[in-house]
Amino acid sequence: MRWRVHCGPHRRASTRNIGMAPAHTATARGLRLNHTPHERSRTVDIGYDPASPLSPFEQVRTRIAAMVTGGDLRAGERLPTVRTLASELGLAVNTVARSYRELEAAGIIETRGRQGTFVSSAADHADQAQRRAVADFVRIATDLNLGCDQALTLVAEEFAARGGD
Predict the structure, then answer these.
(1) In this predicted structure, what is the pLDDT of residue 2?
(2) pTM score
(3) Residue 43 belongs to what H/E stretch?
(4) Rounded CA gap, 26 and 17, in Å?
(5) Topology classification of domain 2-119
(6) pLDDT one-digit tens code per residue, 137-147
(7) CA distance 10 to 7
(8) Edge-to-edge strands of the sheet including 24-25?
(9) What's the average model confidence in pLDDT over 5-15?
(10) Where are the alpha helices (DSSP H) in the chain?
(11) Any idea where the HTH gntR-type domain is (predicted)?
């Protein structure tokens, strides 16, 4: 696995090895995972924006969680060590450690001692549960003769009523 760190379009990528078995490529304030073992090459970005109002730990946590739920990171994939990610992002080790702790508490990642940190297989089950819930909703909406636009409007109203996006 290849790691690539970035900090937006204004930075030029530089390359260096970090010392883990797969080579890593680094720039600043972000991590791009290049997966090549036995599959087509794909790139996954982990990064943070220093200008964002969100704290760095929250940005890292939400980015990794979004990548897992979006399918960019699959169950069983290895994440960089806390120290490696902190070093590459230019963050304190405790900041990244807090992100990992909260992701682990949510069941998104799991730490396997000296083997490292991996995307939890439970996260895959959560994705399947979400897809089942959506399928059930669509089935019920069509049974009630709701069109897609009507159903989405109702969903948006419900989220707004609950204080969500």
Answers:
(1) 46
(2) 0.57
(3) strand 42-47
(4) 8
(5) Arc Repressor Mutant, subunit A (1.10.10)
(6) 999 999 999 99
(7) 8
(8) 24-25, 2-4, 30-35, 42-47
(9) 41
(10) 56-69, 82-89, 93-105, 121-143, 148-161
(11) 54-122
